[in-house]
Amino acid sequence: MAIITELFYLPPIEYFVAIQHEKEIFLDLDENYQKQTYRNRTQIRLANKVETLSIPVIGGNKNVKTSQIKIDHSQKWMNVHLRGIQSAYGKAPFFEFYFPYLEQVFLKKFDLLTEFNRELLTVCLKLLQLDISVKNYDQTIVKSEIKDIRGVINAKSGYAERDIYDALPYSQLFGLDFVPNMSLIDLLFCMGPESKDILIKSQKNH
């Protein structure tokens, strides 16, 4: 019950649907970094639009391994992201309960993108009460025994094209139209302890 994945920034709900029944996640940090992906961007829902939050990185060309990508702290992205999350979810039912756990990670000011993303992933798993251990993948691990979803969940194609996530609507803060597959924090802030149950029900062919 193990899975190999990329490491994303506050991943979309689809990602957690894919990993929820596993015991171990192996993160591939030796892959070549790819721009314009979930590795450094996430989506939240504001009053009248979906907002993409993107972490600026230094370099990030195709020949650099993901494990070596540094966050560009010369840009004031952290305040923008924290304010964006507060603006989007400040009135959500579970915001006050969950936000401090996330804010704590942001304020640590990590140099490496992977360290920041990994800590946020660990917090998300904890808030979901999913008992999954997170490890680094290396070539000595026998792939045949592990589910490999690298390259499957990507920002350039819709979740509906994949056989993972069947969006179950839940109460979002703004508007009548449900917007699926936001960052997991959309689900956590809006639904709290029910989030785990919604993940289970959102699995295709569950």
TrEMBL record:
It comes from the Bacteria. Pfam families: WbqC. This is WbqC-like protein.
